[in-house]
Design a protein that fits this description.
alpha+beta; 5 strands; 5-stranded mixed sheet
């Protein structure tokens, strides 16, 4: 499976979670529900993955955490905010760069329709 195939599965799972839970919950609830939905589809999903960054050769241990890492291909950041801000996309791009991943999904569950809360962020794809 490649990043695009994986992202389609994640988006489908996010729509399913949103269909059942709707908007208005905490990010952590959506994260757990999405983790469960993806796992039930047979995908390898890790939650709250602590990753390291480096600064001029100095290791910065556990300098950030990604909400979900799906099949070691796609980083998923779960939000429940009024509106996705540009800083959310920049943050995800930073995560992708340090993790050496190509594709990330920013999923905002605090929307009337899930499709309007999905942003793809690419890093050298």
């Amino acid at each position: 499976m490649d990043e695009n195939e994986c992202s389609k599965l994640v988006i489908g799972a996010a729509i399913e979670v949103h269909r059942h839970l709707g908007p208005g919950m905490l990010e952590s609830a959506y994260e757990v529900a999405l983790w469960h939905e993806l796992g039930s589809q047979g995908l390898r999903v890790s939650r709250q993955v602590r990753l390291h960054a480096s600064y001029k050769g100095v290791e910065l241990p556990e300098s950030y955490r990604v909400d979900l890492l799906v099949d070691d291909l796609v980083i998923v950041e779960v939000k429940a905010v009024e509106k996705i801000a540009p800083i959310h996309e920049v943050q995800l791009l930073t995560y992708l760069r340090f993790a050496n991943k190509h594709l990330g999904l920013l999923l905002n569950f605090n929307t009337a329709v899930m499709r309007s809360g999905i942003r793809r962020v690419v890093n050298n794809l």
